Amino acid sequence: MSVQAVVACLPQDWREATLVGRIQTAEGPAVIVVRKGRVQDVTSAASTVADLMRDWNGEGPQGRDLGDLEEFDFAANKLLTPVDLQVIKAAGVTFAVSAVERVIEERARGDASRAEQIRQDLRERVGSDIRSVQPGSDAAARLKEALIADGLWSQYLEVAIGPDAEIFTKAPILSAVGHGGQIGVRSDSSWNNPEPEVVLVVDRKGRTLGATLGNDVNLRDFEGRSALLLSKAKDNNASCSIGPFIRIFDDGFTVDDVRSARVDLEIQGKDNYRLEGHSSMDQISRDPLDLVTQAQSEHHFPDGFVLFLGTLFAPTQDRDAPGKGFTHKVGDVVRISSPRLGLLENEVTTSKDAPPWQFGVSDLMRNLAGRGLLKAESAQ
């Protein structure tokens, strides 16, 4: 990837931002921090991004200066996804429109041709009510009772307006692809879509330290047939992308910027099909930090975790036959962007044809050990 392509994916105010990323060097993965536009290799101080986040003190360690980002050789040092040992978690059904679409999937049993009629039947009755209630509130409980009485209750509405959010594990550690990589949908899926989202980065102590962009690729036909197929709908080779960089929270960029962020989506197909949409984070049903708390629950994440916050975007625009809605085709280019987080771009292929995920945790540990980058520490 050229340096021009990397610069084009940066936040608008990137020279005022602190960015954390990973690059693939000739020796192996390296952790970089970009401060005031200059790139530093901090791998000798923090061999993984998880370690960097664990010890983040507001500035992070100083490292070997690699020069100005606009002059860095990204062709020889490929940009990787900016997370490594963190568990990849995701929150679902966090927007009203998303909740209604999940109910539609469930009622259509994964059949896209039935979706539009069900959508028309449900939109006014459920959509207008669900937008006005706070999840877990007395008003939400009353709405639940009314929907049950009408025969309209769904497990998706339970997590949309009930006290407990839907939190699931999206992908294995180290399996996400970064900016410029190929994303995959199962070759046997006929109804699927991207999910453009903000992703929060949380350290082992539960501190929310920064944010990035993500694509929680989703198979609507599989999940629509049964919610018990969630892992098959969500966790496939190359089905998760994160990047381009983690933007660290500081005086100039805070969680309030996440709360008010606009996330834009553009899909360009080889068939000249074009789709645009966006998510406005101010319409999220649950506060981002509440979702972080629910993700932590009673679990322990010694290397921290990242959390997809969900999406407002649910594509319904027909692509081929009327009433069939949207689904991906091989060669689609998906661009997810937000002014203060940058641009995440990926090309769609099938999970079968995407480069296989082969560099796992044991491979990383052997690589770091061979480079003398693992430090012995007392048990904590």
From TrEMBL:
This is Fumarylacetoacetate hydrolase. One of its GO terms (molecular function) is metal ion binding. The keyword Transmembrane helix does not apply. Residues 165-348 form the Fumarylacetoacetase-like C-terminal domain. One of its GO terms (biological process) is small molecule metabolic process. It comes from Phenylobacterium deserti. Belongs to the FAH family. Keywords: Hydrolase, Metal-binding. InterPro entries: FAH, Fumarylacetoacetase-like_C, Fumarylacetoacetase_C_sf.
